[in-house]
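Narrative of activities, Objective 1.

The group set out to show that a structural description can be obtained from nothing but a protein's sequence at a throughput compatible with the screening campaign. Below is one input-output pair from the validation batch, recorded exactly as produced.
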Amino acid sequence: MSNSYFKVIRAGINTTFQDKGRNNLYHIGIPFSGVMDNRNYLLANKLVGNELDLPVIEFAYQGPLLKFYGDKVNIVITGDVVFKIRHNDKEIDGNCYETYELKNKDEINILSTNKSVYGYLAISGSFDLKLQWGSCSINTKANIGSNDGKKLENDQEIKISKINENTNKKKINYLNSKIENIRIMKGTNFDYFSDEGKKIFLEKEYTVSKLSDRMGMRLEGSKIENIVNTNIKSEGLLKGVIQVPADGNPIIMLSDHGTIGGYPKIAVVASVDYDRLVQISPGSKIKFKEIELSDAETLFKLYEMETQNLLSQI
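Output recorded for this entry:
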């Protein structure tokens, strides 16, 4: 057991521990949760020499200010993030996708994400966390996961159970690409909506609402007319499903979504676009583009191959 730890000086807006999430618990109402942006999560662990499924710190908009106490540890930030590292009263600007060595009483100050939402902090080792149903991932709506299911708080200590001996500096050149056209497939209730409503959904722009969070992305724009029923018997939901409540504004289900819902489902987001979808910040414009299931499967396989190629370069 390591004696090293971080002291949380400033917790940030929405800072939690996340990993790949928990499987096969939908039948008892527990969603997958886990990291929002899977590719940036994998790159973070790989850069610091970890197994790819270890927990990381996920933050949104403004991240934490952490002070390290211990011998030394390598850290990395992934995403599109502005951060600084302070050592002996000297401050440097950090670069994402590049590892840095922290020594006793060094600080890392994660100031903000840059026109995106989520970023990730990984250490060369393991945080001392309790698992729940095989995962440390925190769902703050249900108080599930490590840290008593709560966000990080000011003044708490984050203990480190193990630090890797491999502290070689690593970096990769990677640019987070933006996305405006979200590829979707028709949902099970697509025909609940009028021809005009379907046309609006597929052709008009929507604005990402400030009310979006890890549970769902709310959109604002032209109303989608329902001609059958604005409510249905509650059915199972999946990450990426787009529901349309009575007000006609779509909601995209994200990682902490409820496992059942009673709003008609007009579409589902193709998995290939999910990592970039969640990084679209409130106030941004998006449009939907329909594709076939076979195309979605091919695109996702190519995205997975691209991710593996990036990991192999580290």
